[in-house]
């Protein structure tokens, strides 16, 4: 995968990280669940980029 595509994937995953983090915080009211959400998104993005 070339560099522009990798950057596009990272930008594409930034939107769910920001919006999803807000939704998770609203639902659970704790930053622990937000951190778990962010870690899951990072792992998914890294898995997609590495393939």
Architecture overview:
This protein is mainly α and 51 residues long. It has one domain (11-50). Helix content is 90%, strand content 0%. The protein is built from two helices and no strands. It has helices at 3-28, 31-50. 0% of the residues are buried. The model has no long low-confidence stretch (mean pLDDT 89).
Jot down its keywords:
elongated, transmembrane, transmembrane helix
Question: Any chance you could write out the topology, listing elements then pairs?
Answer:
Elements: H1 3-28, H2 31-50
Keywords: Membrane, Transmembrane, Transmembrane helix
Transmembrane segments: 7-28, 34-50
Structural class: mainly alpha
How far apart are the first and last residues' alpha carbons, in Å? 8 Å
Kindly state the number of beta strands: 0
Unreliable stretches:
none
Task: Label the overall shape.
Answer: elongated
Average residue-wise pLDDT? 89
Percent strand equals: under 5%
Largest sheet: none
The proportion of residues forming helix, as a percent range, comes to: over 70%
The total domain count is 1
Number of helices: 2
Transmembrane segments: 7-28, 34-50
Keywords: Membrane, Transmembrane, Transmembrane helix
Provide a quick synopsis of the model.
The chain has 51 residues and is mostly helical.
């Amino acid at each position: 995968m070339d560099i522009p595509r990798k950057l596009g994937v990272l930008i594409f995953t930034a939107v769910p990280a920001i919006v999803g983090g807000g939704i998770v915080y609203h639902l659970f009211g704790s930053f622990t669940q937000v951190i778990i959400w962010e870690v899951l998104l990072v792992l998914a993005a890294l898995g997609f980029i590495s393939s």
